[in-house]
Amino acid sequence: MTIVDVLEQNSRSYGDEVCLVEINPEVKEVRRVTWKEYELMEPSPMTHYRREITWRVFDEKANRFANLLMSRGIKKGDKVAILLMNGLEWLPIYFGILKTGALAVPLNFRYASDEIEYCVNLAEVDVLVFGPEFIGRVEEIADSVSKNRLIFYVGDNCPSFAEDYNALTSNCSSVAPKVVLTEQDNAAIYFSSGTTGFPKAILHNHESLIHSCRVEQNHHSQGRDDVFLCIPPLYHTGAKMHWFGSLLSGSKAVLLKGTKPEYILDAVSKEKCTIVWLLVPWAQDILEAIESGRLNPADYELSQWRLMHIGAQPVPPSLIKSWKAVFPNHEYDTNYGLSESIGPGCVHLGVENIHKVGAIGKPGFGWQVKIVDEERNEVTKGEVGELAVKGPGVMTCYYNDEKATDEVLDDGWLFTGDMAMEDEDGFIFLVDRKKDVIISGGENIYPVQIEDFLRNNNKIHDVAVIGIPDKRLGETTLAVIELKPDTECTEEEINEFCKKLPRYKRPHKVIFADIPRNPTGKIEKPKLREKYCGTRLVEAQNRG
């Protein structure tokens, strides 16, 4: 079975039921419209607050795009890149690609033109599908990208260097193409975060995708009556693989464009959402809005909201303690994963283990886990080592990069580059990224531990700890601290607060500044290192 089979089964069984809702709070609501009503209208897709489609329409849209691609010669094994913001078009396009036997290649919406071109070339893409937000970036590289490639534009006022997706698919058959797919067929190429330069292309097969569906539903028990609120970008494995639980259960999902606390609570209330996946900054923003009195949970219908879960980064225990104080009836869960393991779920805390908040959990459904030393021998419980995972969701390889593949794959095991520790109860705690560990005077310092401590300070909104060069110790610690709005704090206050830490863990330097995070909520530490290491650190201190 593949996820294409699941979509087609949902279309047959629940065809007239709404499966996807798109909400854009930045646009004034005129009235709610169905997809069929929307298609008869002339205005831009962005002129309506809310749109929706049913399972049958979803499947038909996918079939139309599949038939368009096949009419242009796209076949099994070809690659089709998607450069779109979240919206109702995204997932039907993704499934349309898969129905042809081609590989879907989602692209990060933050990519600059040179990164788009690099990824298109690395993945050997045959077709590029893009939306209105990217006209300028694609136009810059259109001459080189269009050579031997098709370019389809999704939106109004199609630029001259592309073909009109809407006009072309409207004339295509809505009947599914007869392409036989197996779990061992290649399905998608995702890209790494690119924290060490340009991103790597991560190849997954259909077994990976269907396994992620099973993992998600096993962990969070999605049923037909659940409604999942999806906020993160669909190009990323995290958002899409969490949505796969809705796909497998045939339940509704809501795509929310916007991350403001009032947008999230309003969507949960109006759409009766039961499951919400948040990133750490969004959860913090909700709590701060409630704490300040700007938002009152009693103004919303939230009683049906049963599960809040967080992933994509280490979760501060203090955050969950505060969350449970405000939302005592919520189940809480966290998942660990990476794009190389088809996103979240290879390690899973479980709603029944909230007493272990701070841990990422135990091996997820269908997964094996081990922690190893530099020679890749397993360490004993309580020792820090590199986390390795094994299961049906491990990537096939880094596409066109045998050397990088050999560095992280060995006998089915994926070596994650994350440092972890297993406690006496078998729960795994993420210590830090291997490359983020600070070695100061021969002592290993794990920034996440310091960050978790600092987040207990009620003046701090966000924090990142990095290593900076030091002539005597090799490296010392710098804490970059983002304060809560309208809050004042000094370096002396932070130093006093940190006296509860062992001396070697205390930040040697403190800078107050904004914390950069990528679209999936991860702190962009390479940017901080580039900004604050060496002479730039001195300059920043002089300015402060």
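The record above closes out task 2.4. Task 2.5 opens with a second protein, given below.
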Amino acid sequence: MRSLRSVSLLVAVLVACGPKPTPSITPTLPGDGDTHVAKPTEPPPGPKVDDPWAGRTDLIATPAVKPPQKLDLPEVKRFTLPNGLKVLIVKDTRLPIVSMQLAVRAGRADEPRARLGVSEFAADMLVKGTTRRKALDIAKAIDFVGGGLGVDASFEATIASCKVLTKNTNVCLDLLPDVMLNPSFPTDEMARVREQLLGGVRSRLDDAGTMASIQVQNLLWGNEHVRGWVTDEASVKAITRDDLVAWHKAWFAPDNALLAIAGDVDPAKLEKDLGKAFGGWKKRAVPPHPAYADPKQEGIRIRLVDKPKQTQTQIRIAQLGIRHSDPRFFDSLVWNYTLGGGAFSSRLMKVVRSAGGKTYGASSAFDRNLDRGTFVASTFTRNAEAVNTAKLVLGEIAKMAKDGPTESEVSDAIANIAGSYAVRFEGADDVTSALLGAELHGFGEEYVENYALRVGKVDAASAKAAAHDILAPDKVVIVMVGDAAELKPLLDKEGWHYDLVKFTDPIGGGSGAVAPPPPVDPKAEAAGRAILDDALKAKGGADKLKALKGIDMKASGTITGQGQTLDIEIERRFALPDQIRVDVTIAHQIQVAYAVAKGAGWQKSPQGVADVPAEQLDQLDHQRWTDPEFVLLRHLEKGAVVRALPDQTDKGVAYALVNITSADGAHTVTLFIDKKTKLIKQLAYPDQGDVSFDMFDDYKDVGGIKIAHKRASKNGAEELSLTVDKIELNPAMDAALFARPAK
């Protein structure tokens, strides 16, 4: 009496799916990267034009470019509180403002694949309630003094910021420790934050640029590296309050944090105040940060993301980058400014926009993280120009790798990068951000002070050497997001091999929100099997379940979706090993049905009888495998992978969590088992790129087997709630029940 998605499909009059997706191929680009790269040509000389400004002596001369200057920071006071919290204070009297930024070294890079999005979810929840204050109280407290308070999670850290007038410093000293140390993660606020996060995930389907940027990271880093993982709806929906509590408990320790403060403050007094404010934060060990091997990149790989009716194509070309600590970092700032980081003065902008007339903009950038990041070039153009534009970008990357920037380009880049550096520090919060970033990457304030000087030491030779060492135009990945109907002929004409995916497909196969990836820890496997053995006994025992030949179950209730709730009646017949028939009556008048037998199926609606598409057959097979009456037998099947997951507690009930994956990896389900009764209370399983949850209650003994008589399913905004009215074990079933009706 389950599978909300199947019932929803029936309600939608069982619309058949389209053809199977095209099988993927390994994409490579012929040649060494030069063969299909267009070489920019010089425009033909035009007619000579007289310059009316030539020879004038009364014009204001362009001021001479000043050499890079050291940034004069006030003295930085450093100390460490007894609990291990490192503190940096800069006295800045320009304005009567104080800015505090507290960073915890835990972010997107530390998330397990099964809980993608937990760092951002937790960060957003920190200001939604503490053990002392509700969300509204926190908002009122900071608004009353005209200040700002917020928390955000980045790739490497979770950072809380508080900014107020100096006279209200005590407000930050009260609120900042409270939200970081004492979050309550209220469930009502979780629902609102979850919807906001889901909105962000869904919005990328409408934003081809964002889609291209996400796809290129996945293509470059793959599904075994955290940089290649993509937070999806399934992962956001799978995050529980216990996950947030566990994340906070694991990483939020004072000796894993850093506090930077700048403003019109008294450092000596502030040191005492901080000791009181953060004194209750107890030191404790944190887990080691995960480490991943860099992917091997051979040749050029292309992914075409089909977004029908898209008139423009978003293009991303990416390769492995460098670490922030790389000695070639400042050289790379210069060559990348010349290539695509310098806006309208960059080569990409000139060649792709001005000379080529292909697009309005093109740029390039590289990450600056503790680990090795990504170098990526970005542009967009009309579909008809997508391949030619990609050639132009590849050509400029290849030219930079071979020849580097010119002396003139290096001088211009240094003047712009170093010259604009000092203007970044307009306020106290700019100072704290810079100091915090440097400190998190193992640099001191010297890095901030001498940044412009370091840029000024780059010359054409060092920039050329760095570009030559780092750029690998024959080892890149290319993503194009556009209308495949227009793009495929262009790619095929060039002989470029590519993977074709739909823009709605789970990126990289999805987040793995329901089950963590193998390998399985032997201890976790043994613990999981022990839990399942106990649950099997509580259910009635393996012998009784294996003796079942069929079940006939009738239930009634409601289905909610698309803004309305309807009455529903279901009869489900299951004849082992693989025959299923489900009859549904909606609103006491609409009757639909489907049946599957021996690998084929049919579906009946008011519109008539049709075959069940192959894609839905796979889905129905997964439902059979996860059936609540037989799922406890799955771990006994040959090759089944079992792992115990961390226990969870919800509304005072403790649950043991176990994941089972079939030997072929085609099926997976996570069981939530009541630790007291040993009965299944919930199942979670992937469902067409989403996660469905089935809940069970009111167990009754039927022929020696415990069967839940209250059942509910939830998938996104759709809900199914049922009460079992009648159940019969091993009933006589006519084979005609499963035969395809004539009409």
